[in-house]
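With this grant's support, we have settled on a layout for protein records. A representative record follows, to show the layout.
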Amino acid sequence: MKLISDSGSTKTDWLLTDKDFVVASCRTQGINPFIQSEEFIESVIRDELLPQIPLNGFLSDIRFYGAGCRSKQGQMVHAILSRHFSGANIEVASDMLCAARALCGHEAAIACILGTGANSCLFDGTEIVNNISPLGYILGDEGSGAFLGKVLLANVYKHLLSEELAEDFRAVYSLTVDEVLQRVYREPLPNRYLASFTPFLKKHESHPEIQQLLFSAFDSFFKRNILAYHHPELPVHFVGSIAYFFQNSLQEAACHNNVNIGRIIREPLERWRNI
């Protein structure tokens, strides 16, 4: 049997497969070793994953694809998994490689993630050959859930939203400026917190102000990331909740930048046979 995971900063989806069949699936908290401690990740595996998966047979392979899994951080995740699944062949790779394999198969394309965070890569059908660094939610991540939440909050508390929208925001969230600053600057996982405001954007997606906010964010994503690959002939595929739920605005920004959008899926594991 094989255990496959797709992990972002907000959630981790797991699939237990046996040849061409899915034996079980579950979800845990997100695992990102770049911003989380070894102890926290260990607790997610021990307390959330293991109670949910029925390991009635030999687990031969684990493919863990995760945000923040660079060399040193990836080694930490590998060590944690090795302690719990001795004997399994373990591969730890970036969530970007997972997205590229799921979206592109064996075809050359540009693969993108738009979820809590953002990322993209040039994929040649076998491996990632170029990656414009997204730079994270402080310096970059244009078009991501965290980026959209950051812009929305700034517009609310700088009085840049119409009173109609601002009043509804206050009714839904009842947050003071001090409470927002506390969560963003002094508590863990501010990127996840910022992304939690995207349902408000979805609720008001048809409002001209929100349409402009979405278009501007996605336009920035294309200009600052995708156009830098200089491959206008390639299709651009997307995975992630933001791309999936805001497809109209994403398509509009793509058209504005002469980008050809191909496949848009919500989760990489929808195409698990490719990965």
In short: Residues 2-98 form a domain with the Nucleotidyltransferase; domain 5 fold (CATH 3.30.420.40). The radius of gyration is 19 Å.
